[in-house]
Design goal:
Length: 134
């Protein structure tokens, strides 16, 4: 079992920054790929960014085109935490942000598919609200 808890959401003005955290407790965090997904009001949940489990010297990452060059995903396996640094936020980034965990995923192909499908996660957190508004 893996329990996930998101934090770091809040109200921010357009152009501002937030850093979301996904803290894990339970089983071995570093065995899991971690994904960040968001759901805006009236819309389906979409994949924002995913990071695979460590593979030799790095972790494979995926970013949705809408956030590429603005958001950065990372993980600290010693602290059992994954992060999503969000810069230059826009009103369309508003939504509830969820983190999810999927056992074993590490290749670029599977990390990308994980984010695009959003249905393969083994565990989910409860979400944290991000509101980008002036």
């Amino acid at each position: 079992q893996l329990q996930l808890e998101e934090s770091g959401g809040g109200l921010v003005q357009p152009g501002g920054s937030l850093r979301l955290s996904c803290a894990a407790t339970g089983t071995t965090f570093d065995y899991y790929a971690i994904g960040w997904f968001r759901q805006a009001p009236g819309k389906e949940r979409e994949g924002v960014s995913c990071i695979g489990r460590r593979d030799e010297n790095d972790e494979k990452k995926y970013y949705s085109p809408s956030v590429k060059d603005r958001f950065s995903i990372s993980r600290d396996d010693f602290k059992n935490v994954a992060y999503l640094q969000m810069n230059n936020l826009k009103p369309e980034d508003t939504g509830v942000y969820y983190c999810g965990a999927d056992l074993g995923t590490k290749s670029q192909f599977l990390v990308t598919r994980l984010c695009l499908s959003g249905t393969d996660m083994d565990y989910w957190g409860e979400g944290t609200l991000v509101n980008v508004s002036s």
